[in-house]
UniProtKB/TrEMBL annotation:
A Pfam family: Glyco_transf_11
Organism ancestry: Eukaryota, Metazoa, Chordata, Craniata, Vertebrata
Protein name, UniProt field: L-Fucosyltransferase
EC code: 2.4.1.-
One BP annotation, GO: carbohydrate metabolic process
Transmembrane segments: 12-32
Pathway: Protein modification; protein glycosylation
Catalytic activity reported: a ganglioside GM1 + GDP-beta-L-fucose = a ganglioside Fuc-GM1 + GDP + H(+)
A Gene Ontology cellular-component term: Golgi cisterna membrane
Gene Ontology molecular function: galactoside 2-alpha-L-fucosyltransferase activity
Family: Belongs to the glycosyltransferase 11 family.
Length: 341
């Protein structure tokens, strides 16, 4: 029987092969990391994914779905934190939510290990986006909250605790403050105005499905002029998922407008941190801008009455439960939705 001859590789050949595959592995890893804004070697997050002890299991465990993007995830986290506190149960978050939020914020809620999620006899409890009296009396040791809650009515009574939960990591603060300092230039004093312009999918969803509009050029001019008149040293830090539209429709000729955002929806933490570190905020629509305004404090201007009265959106969205009473609303121009005469 013929046996193939065993092939031997010389030592130099083996060394070259090992070096090649090592470089290939490193290159692949760095490529997978390129969608993360913050360098991976600066991220140091405590692993909270430890198995809860029997005492915690006996006392019960509450969690919430991890759906949507950054603004939704923050709303779900804050709502869970507040409702579990009311009920006297320990709140835990899902691994997906931890992965989404923990790279940006110093969140404290423990994580349910993936292996345990499907073993718990959850009671599913659907939430709408405003606090109701019934939510103070939710029964069950193992409750899984669902929905897209982000209304301040769930958690504003513990405002300081929520701000503490959404404290940015030090490296996020450093990178953001360094960028804002560059924008300041030689100015002695600056009032930073964060501007979030939500476009993306809403450009089509609002007029065609929700009988509404997104912010237009006129709204942004009114909002920016309000701050220009009030603060002579105002500069505007614009972030958006439609930056090309912003550059075409926001007048930057005065030298006080900076199109700072990168618009990457896959890694929104950088843009969010920029406007959340500003003194005041101009938001348009959406939970992302709402949360940036909430964390920034200061004055907030928002787009008001941006849907027709019969919009389905108003069945799941109560403006009074989303926009704080002290925030300033500028009514949207609904004329594009009205029949042509």
């Amino acid at each position: 029987m013929y046996l193939p001859e065993r092939r031997l590789f010389s030592r130099p050949t083996l060394v070259i092969c090992l070096v090649f595959f090592s470089l290939l592995s490193v290159s692949t890893f760095l490529h997978l990391q390129k969608n993360n804004y913050y360098p991976w070697w600066r991220i140091s997050i405590k692993n909270t994914s430890t198995l809860p002890d029997h005492e915690h299991l006996d006392r019960g465990m509450w969690t919430v779905n991890s759906i949507g993007r950054l603004g939704n995830q923050m709303g779900e986290y804050a709502t869970l934190y507040a409702l579990a506190k009311v009920s006297g149960h320990q709140a835990y978050i899902l691994p997906a939510m931890h992965q989404y939020l923990a790279t940006i914020f110093k969140i404290s809620l423990p994580v349910i290990p993936s292996r345990l999620v499907d073993q718990i006899p959850w009671k599913i409890y659907q939430l709408h986006n405003w606090m109701s009296e019934e939510y103070r009396h939710i029964q069950g040791k193992y409750v899984w909250l669902t929905g897209y809650p982000y209304s301040y009515t769930f958690y504003h009574h513990i405002h300081q605790e929520i701000l503490q939960e959404f404290t940015f990591h030090d490296y996020v603060k450093e990178d953001t403050n360094q960028y804002l300092l560059q924008l300041r230039g030689q100015r002695k004093e600056v009032t930073y105005i964060g501007v979030h312009v939500r476009r993306g999918d809403y450009v089509y969803l609002m007029p065609y499905f929700l009988k509404g509009v997104v912010a237009d050029k006129g709204y942004l001019e009114k909002a920016m002029n309000y701050f220009r008149e009030k603060y002579h040293d105002a500069i505007f830090v614009v972030v958006s998922n439609g930056m090309d539209w912003c550059k075409q429709n926001i007048d930057a000729s005065r030298g006080d407008v900076y199109f700072a955002g990168d618009g990457r929806e896959s890694s929104p933490g950088r843009d969010f941190a920029l406007i959340a570190h500003c003194n005041h905020t101009i938001m348009t629509i959406g939970s992302y801008g709402m949360w940036a305004s909430y964390l920034a404090g200061g004055e907030t201007i928002y787009l008001a009455n941006y849907t027709l009265p019969g919009s389905f959106h108003l069945k799941v969205f109560k403006p009074s439960a989303v926009f704080l009473p002290e925030w300033i609303g500028i009514p949207a121009d609904l004329s594009p939705l009205l029949p042509k005469s």
